Fold this sequence. Notes:
This protein is mainly α and 121 residues long. The protein has one domain (2-119). It is 93% helix and 0% strand. It is built from 3 helices and no strands. It has helices spanning 2-41, 47-83, 85-119.
Amino acid sequence: MAQSATRLRLRVAAGWARFAAIAGFVVSLLLALVMVATTLKRWMPGAQTAYAIATTVVSTIAVGGAAGLVWAFARNVSLFFVEGEPALARAFRRLRYFFIVWTLFTGYNAVTTLYWFIAKR
């Protein structure tokens, strides 16, 4: 009984992870489009444009990479029902990588935001 409840929870988790991954890919694409449009609209030669371009590139890569890792988590949870324990271990490894990528991305954004806030003064 407990085992079937656990399997059901894993199936639900895999479904939500797929949804989150697809939403992440969509958000990544929209984020890139908005940031590129904003950068081109306010094109100013110099450091501000370089900062905007760098932020766009890093943000798009981070969000897209994170969505890819969440998708891999969902896929490996689904494979758990076919292959067994090794697939579940891979799934949680992908989830750990997601948190590492997201922490690095958040740190990058915090440092660059603080830098530009201090540099403007």
